Records
---
Amino acid sequence: MIRQQELQIARPRHPDRNAAQGGKSFYFFDLDENIFSIESAHYVFHKKTKEMLEVPGKQFWEEIDNIGKKGFLKDYEVILDDDGSFRRFRDSPELPSHQQPFFEDLSLALKQGDWMGPSWNQFHHAVYNQRPVALITARGHHPETVKAGLKLFTEKNILPSDPNYLAVLPVSHPQVTEQLGGGTVPELKRKAIRFAVEEAFRQYGYNDHHRFGMSDDDPKNVKKIIDEFIALKKDYPSVAFFIIETTKGKCNKWEIYPDHAERKRIEPSLQLSFFE
């Protein structure tokens, strides 16, 4: 994965592209392998003994289709409850935000370096210019846990300030799941996108010149985002919607129309001009 260098802070702040018409630019981001890359352990459980085995995240996802079937994890299974395979992607109820697994894993990544995801520069740009930001992730932490983790970037002077949060939507957290009306994780992420767009209208008012962009690294997620953005474009035809897809070092821009989306390959250095 290509890592971009952090942008220099000492530069002019830029107004929204459509500020003269009253429009604002809203930025939506997935977290993992997009804004940052952190190593969160995953766990599998022996089918007979129920013994738990810790597996590094990268290895877990390399073996995901083999778990329980073949290879060194053929005798193990994935368990989806809160104490199961993704326990480090959930909160421990008895712990404060700064002791949660997300905070610990992110702290360790910042110490070790090489944590920047392919959309880090976009995120930095959005924070620097105080664009309204929505974070939409499959993680199951409380939104305040996510905010506490990201505050590390401010405290370490990696970011100039806290983000201007429009919404923080870890869709696997029970409260967020209920807020969005339930469903599978892909369904919840689609609902979260619509919620964030309509939250923008609630907080900032509707304007034909608003722009909404979302950044994600997973092609499967991008397909779901395209579907929801097309639906939103039908509801709000004058508003601009687009996606920046960052997958394995490549970067595609998707422009959204009421009945389709058009993809264009762009250089990573040009991402900011499309997101603005």
---
Amino acid sequence: MQILVVDAQGGGIGKQLVSMLKQRVEGAVVTAVGTNSLATSAMLRAGADSAATGENAVIVCARKADVIVGPVGIVIADALLGEITPAMAAAIGQSRAKRVLIPINHCDNLIAGVPDLSVSHLIQSAIDLIRAM
């Protein structure tokens, strides 16, 4: 299974995702794409099989993924303090991949009906969904 992890800013959520995917999802080939080099570096250190940075990397890797996982902002243009470009959001939204979006209530994007859970709980829930696939 080709899994694309996309994250921005410091890559903290992506780092946790990569680490847990490599430990708990048998056969996962994890590609990490950060919107900046700091996020990419964090995910690579966490054990990603390959990694890249920037808009074009998101666009290309979204075409090849079976699953795309990251904070919900990755499908919202200008989210994550402006690090998600409209082209990135469109590429992820139009990909044939299944998307597992972590409901982080940040950057003026609030998700109604979702309890305010810890990031570690949300990441574990995302891993459980992917394992079920």
